[in-house]
Amino acid sequence: MDVFIAIVQILDSTIRLSVPLLLACLAGLYSERAGVFDIGLEGKMLVGAFAGAAAASVFHSAFLGLGMAIVMSVAFALVHGFASITHRGNQIVSGVAINFVAAGSTIILGQAWFQQGGRTPALQPGERFEAITLPGASAIHDVPIIGPIYSELLSGHSILVYLAFAMVPFTWWVLFRTRFGLRLRAVGENPAAVDTAGISVAWLRYRALICTGILTGIAGAYLSMVQNGGFVKDMTAGKGYIALAALIFAKWRPVNAMFACLLFGFLDAAAIRLQGSPLPLIGKVPVQFMQALPYVLTVILLAGFIGKAIPPRAGGVPYVKER
Amino acid sequence: MAQAAIELIGINKSFGAVRANRDINLEIARGTIHGIVGENGAGKSTLMSILYGFYQADSGEIRVGGKPASIKTSNDAIALGIGMVHQHFMLVDNFTVLENIILGAESDALLKKSIAKARSELERLEREYGLEVDPDAIIEELPVGLQQRVEILKALYRGAEILILDEPTGVLTPAEADHLFRILKQLKEQGKTVVLITHKLREIMAITDNVSVMRQGTMVATRETAKTTVGELAELMVGRRVLLRVEKGEAEAGAVKLAVKNLTVKDSRGVTMVDDISFDIKAGEIVGIAGVAGNGQSELLEAISGIRRAVSGSVMLDGKPIDLTGAADPGELRDRGLAHVPEDRHHVGLVLAFEENENSILGYHDDPRYLKGPFLNIDAIMADAKDKIEKYDIRPGNPRLKTANFSGGNQQKIVLAREMEQDPGVLIVGQPTRGVDVGAIEFIHKRLIAMRDQGKAVLVVSVELDEIRSLSDRILVMFAGRIVGERGPEATEGELGLLMAGVERQEAAE
Question: Quick one: DSSP state of residue A122?
Fold first, then answer.
């Protein structure tokens, strides 16, 4: 039974750890499916995390914080669009620039506004998104097997966790069942086909980037307002890049993306859990090895275990009419 | 003459300093098939792009059905009942036929209703015009002929009354082209107006009612097809008389220069593209390889020229084997007298960002003629480049100009000049006149025949059947990686067309 409880706990933290990855991954999915590579997921999450925590602490409202996180993240997405869609700049350069600006400006503004070494003040209750207890969770807590799974694993998360997982079927539906999704996928494959069909390529790509901005904003808010009680400098810690890896791993499909992010989240959770404790047969594993494992696995998986991942064909290429 | 479907009055369009269209007047009668011919760069596609709202004219007036029309975007054109089938299909390759057809013309924000509506509409179009295609097939799995049909359906689904086709037969087999023409005739009978842009005069004669000729951005003449001849049209196109078939004497074949035996080549996906092929080329003859693009010709050329590794078989150059393991050094082959004009001059034959003179010695830059000690001898290279420019009539005649700024025909001449002037024993040429205009085609053909008459062995691979028939002393037809037949230059187009479509082979197998 101890093992069972341990597994449930690992899975529980798997869910918590995979949420920011999942939101960022779906964010990247919108823009890359529309043919705009977005290496700036990391930066937009960071901006969202900072804006969210700062606004929540100043206005004493979690929802205002979330709103501000989304607004600022979308603003950065539009900068990316302005550079790479309107001015046909290099999408990678623009994305990297956004990451640098985000990393620098959050610390400077944080220090200027709050004088806490780039941090935002610790969020008080009401300024954070609290855990939601699903109905009946405490009642069936003691039922074997089902009890812990329901009350520990499924219940007791913040609303953003449920939102993140709800975004998976929603994104699938948008992409494959709506007019917007059809056009979005088309513009990532062959923008000329979209243009000759009388649809604006630029406006379509901008809308995709706005979707990206909204989701990275939520991802950032989750980091600073749910996982942590405030903004800490560079708190995204490469999650934007892992999300990009998960996106490739998922072959740009929403449901695959969820499983990819859960896998990366699980590795993270296992690494934390197993720190210092000996593994059967292997013995004690250095902490650093466990921490490196998600990245090692990413490289191995991307190097050949997932088959050929074919990106959207027009990805990375600014659209220019012929001639 | 029936009422005009489209009238263009005084259309002008410039791209920078280039005047692509000047003072174009054109009237297209309703319910007819109207051909527009001209050399590459004559401004045909630009004119049609203006009509389809892809570009805006600098000045001039467009009237559709007698009423002045303002066409600012493709949407405006579609609303006016103008549909276009582009030379490069505007399809999303990994979408289904239905998804491609509704893209941009969805009836609802949700796809389900749009698709259901398109499906029943498609059935109607299928009945009416005999345009059969599986609505759920993925585009990239369809042959090009069917992809083109999807483009036509796309236009009809949007209610097109006027259909513009830009070079529609470039990618089709003769049989597919004939099928397309039947469809176009049927559309005409249903009262639609068809505008056909092409540089193939044979097609114009076969199917159009009227034909307009463009040259260097101007509209030089409009004729009733029945009252004109191929000769007259060709003359109007280039502004002087052209030889449609280059004169040449009998071949005097000598010793075998290049012998290919049981050659098998796979492409990068591991699919066998060249399947156990054997043939010889003798000194003083031109061997032509005909076939629809994608039947292994490219891989064959690459294997012989040492770019791609072969799985098995041998290639002998002057009786000595060529290394087929992929380790062959194309430079070494050059030294042994094998020159290669690649099919894709942009990616393989030229560095477009280089100046003309640099490209004119590319690959031969180690030759002592172009060297002064360890350095390039710029004076010698420039002199050499100027010499080639004069000899091959490369325009503009400026060896310092960036290669990207030359037209397709002149780029091809740069490659040909470089390879031919090395006096190779064997010359292999892929698509010698792809994207090259009529005047330059004649010139290139003459040069190739001159090479032959000097006793060189020449291998020509081309998807243009006219070219193969006009140049070759022997014609080999490739289909699905094999040589399915050998014919003399007197073979008819129909006969070769059937071989190219693999018909004979299938029948033999049954």
Answer: P
Q: Domain B256-352+409-509 class? A: alpha beta
- The confidence score (pLDDT) of residue B510 equals 40
The confidence score (pLDDT) of residue B178 equals 87
- Output A108 or B175, whichever has higher pLDDT: A108
- The answer to whether the Cβ–Cβ distance between B110 and A189 falls below 8 Å is no
CATH number attached to the domain at A2-123+144-305: 1.10.3470
The answer, yes or no, to whether residue A149 has pLDDT greater than 60, is yes
Q: Do A181 and B114 touch (CB under 8 A)?
A: no
Residues in B touching A181 (Cβ below 8 Å): 111
- The segment(s) of chain B belonging to CATH 3.40.50.300 are 4-238, 256-352+409-509
Q: Could B93 and A181 be called an inter-chain contact, meaning their C-beta atoms sit closer than 8 Å? A: no
Whether A309 contacts chain B with CB within 8 A:
no
Strand B285-290 versus strand B457-461 pairing type: parallel
Give the homologous superfamily in CATH for domain B4-238. Answer: P-loop containing nucleotide triphosphate hydrolases (3.40.50.300)
- What is the token pair recorded at A245? 């890896």
Closest by Cα among A154, A167, A163, A158 to A257: A167
Q: How confident is the model at residue A285 (pLDDT cuts 50, 70, 90)?
A: confident
* Contact A196/B at CB under 8 A: yes
Instruction: Give A39: exposed, middle or buried? Use CB within 10 Å, 0-12, 13-18, 19+.
Output: buried
ipTM reported for the complex, 2 dp: 0.87
- pLDDT band at residue B507 under the 50/70/90 scheme: very low
